[in-house]
Write a structure and sequence with these properties.
The complex is a heterodimer of chains A (466) and B (124). With 466 residues, chain A is mainly alpha-helical. Helix content of chain A is 75%, strand content 0%. Helices cover 82% and strands 0% of the residues of chain B. Chain B is built from five helices and no strands. Classes of the chains: A mainly alpha (466), B mainly alpha (124).
Chain lengths: 466, 124
């Protein structure tokens, strides 16, 4: 019975995606994939963690329909691989979920040729499935349905018209190949795999550090002295840098975009180098037995102070970036800087937790990748183009109109609505008109598979219906 | 480990997949010589990729006396993920151009199948 579901799913896959852009089809595919996985892995799909991953995947499916953005599509794909990987083994870290999910989805077929019981499975397949019965079950009704359709067609003109509307033109050799691709995908995910030894190694490693057998007080004392001197000096240096930076921020009034841009970018470069080196140094000193050395309090305090000062550095960079945004408008790069600043903050907090709770590096990697995944999901739920446009038109002291017009179509309606309320050239007004009309035209010619929320929303807007 | 046999099979597979994907319209009789001639560049590309990127895994394993199936299970996941990443990136960058799709689809399937053939050549 199950191979039949795979075939049905692969035909649906072709009907959804063949020759179509991404839209409603990806959302429907997500629901289909969850149902399919539930059918093939009924026990595993009840696991709370897997239910959570399935809900995250469903959320991304809804977001794809509503936002229709590249970021939403990427988030949906990542959530799909995470779900498949979680079904492979729900107890592994999220990056092992990605590894297992990705490998299962793209190459499960090749891996399964080495399964020990493949011969037995072939025998069981033949034994379990009565091929002749299935052929009869499909072929006989099909033949009779065709005969009766032809008969009824001659008896009723309305029925005849409806039958004539059925169009199988979409089926061609390419369509069949695409269906094979769908079969390949569904067949792969029907039995999720685990990549070894990555999966078993990950399962063996917990988050805690333990004392080694070669614990030596003398060596640790020397290492602690080195760490204390180094971190003490680095604390002084970063403190001096922060004081000069605050003084510069308070006393200097920068009005040119290039000067502010230089400040933000050089600040970011400093931040990248500083945070990376800070984390590497902390990880080096707290990689092993120094965590258990009784006289490590000073070193720990200096480490916490350094992390705190780095957080202060992050806040300063965020203030500079926000000043830049307030003066010259919001752009993807400037949002990216804020996201990077947030992720760096998360990195510092997890490093702090690692040192305080005596955790290992795997803990850092696990927590940071989990948070990065959540940040990706959350970021995908936002219509950034609209937010950028709205912010720049309403709040920014100065902005680049050309940049707003060149953004994706997702700000076309807002630009069209606002074009008469803002002081822009006639050329730009014409460009906005062209963009808007092209967008409405694109919405009108979309196939149902390509629909997004805007297909149901745009016509309701009185200002956009002309 | 029979490299010539693997190359011959891989080349045939790559040619079939490439033309199957690219042939939107039925191939005309006049175009058949080109289909046949295409075996030469396909063979060149396939051989280069297989000898440079897949054989080293099995040659190294052979010198260490390792099981080819174990080599497959250990290294194939990473190889295929990288291969998939490169293929998808190029296809997206080329704006889903049919020639590029055909080329990278055939390359992806052929290299994967080549791994299977190498691993199954002398399973212990």
């Amino acid at each position: 019975m199950k191979p039949l579901f795979t075939i049905i799913a692969s035909i649906l896959f072709s009907m959804l995606f063949y020759g179509k852009h991404i839209g409603l089809n990806l959302s429907i595919f997500s629901v289909l994939a969850i149902l399919f996985l539930g059918l093939y892995q009924p026990k595993k799909i009840k696991d709370k963690r897997i239910v959570l991953h399935a809900l995250a995947y469903l959320l991304t499916a809804v977001v794809v329909f509503i936002q229709h953005s590249s970021l939403a599509i990427i988030a949906n794909c990542v959530a799909f691989f995470t779900l498949v990987g979680a079904i492979s083994n729900s107890n592994t870290s999220i990056y092992v979920h990605w590894l297992n999910g990705l490998y299962t989805s793209i190459a499960g077929f090749f891996y399964r040729t080495f399964e020990v019981d493949s011969e037995a499975e072939k025998v069981n397949w033949k034994k379990d499935i009565d091929v002749v019965h299935w052929i009869k079950l499909i072929a006989i009704p099909l033949v009779f349905i065709i005969i009766f359709i032809l008969l009824y067609k001659n008896g009723n003109p309305m029925f005849s018209d409806l039958v004539n509307m059925i169009n199988f033109d979409f089926i061609n050799f390419q369509w069949v190949l695409f269906t094979v691709l769908g079969y390949f995908l569904f067949s792969n995910i029907s039995k999720p795999l685990t990549v070894e030894p990555a999966t078993s190694t990950d399962l063996k490693i917990n988050n805690d550090l333990s004392k080694s057998d070669s614990f030596s007080e003398d060596t640790l004392k020397k290492e602690k002295q080195l760490g204390t001197v180094l971190l003490g000096l680095l604390n002084l240096l970063i403190l001096f840098y922060i004081i000069t930076d605050i003084t510069y921020l308070v006393t200097t009034e920068t009005s040119s975009a290039s000067a502010l841009s230089n400040q933000v970018h050089s600040g970011i470069n400093t931040l990248i180098a500083s945070i990376l080196i800070a984390i590497v140094i902390i990880l080096y000193f707290f990689r092993g037995d120094l965590n258990f050395y009784s006289d490590n309090k000073t070193l720990k305090n200096l480490t916490f102070l350094w992390i705190g000062l780095n957080v202060l550095l992050i806040i300063l960079i965020a203030i500079k970036n926000q000043t830049y945004i307030t003066s010259f408008g919001l752009t993807y790069k400037r949002i990216g800087v804020h996201v990077y600043i947030f992720l760096t903050l998360v990195g510092l907090v997890t490093t702090f937790l690692k040192v305080m709770n005596i955790k290992n590096m795997v803990f850092l990697f696990r927590r940071n990748t989990q948070i990065a995944f959540i940040v990706l999901l959350l970021c995908s739920t936002i219509n950034w183009d609209r937010i950028i446009t709205k912010y720049n038109l309403n709040h920014a002291a100065a902005f680049d109109m050309d940049y707003l017009i060149k953004l994706s179509d997702r700000n076309a309606i807002l630009l069209y609505q606002k074009k008469d309320d803002i002081a822009i050239s006639d050329e730009n007004k014409n460009r906005i008109d062209t963009k808007y009309r092209a967008y409405i035209n694109k919405l009108n010619i979309r196939a149902w598979q390509e629909y997004s929320y805007e297909n149901f929303n745009v016509e309701l807007d009185p200002k956009t219906s002309d | 480990m029979n490299v010539p046999s693997n190359l011959a099979k891989s080349c045939s597979l790559a040619t079939i997949i490439f033309w199957a994907v690219i042939a939107i319209e039925p191939i005309e009789f006049n175009a058949l010589p080109f289909v046949i001639l295409s075996v030469i560049p396909v063979f060149f590309c396939t051989s280069l990729v297989i000898v440079l990127t897949i054989c080293p895994f099995f040659w190294t394993a052979k010198t260490k006396g390792a099981n080819p199936v174990k080599v497959f299970k250990t290294w194939h996941p990473y190889y295929t993920i990288i291969c998939f990443g490169i293929s998808i990136s190029v296809i997206v960058l080329a704006d889903f151009e049919s020639f590029i799709i055909a080329f990278f689809t055939s390359a992806f399937i052929t290299t994967n199948q080549s791994w299977v053939w190498f691993a199954k050549a002398n399973p212990k």
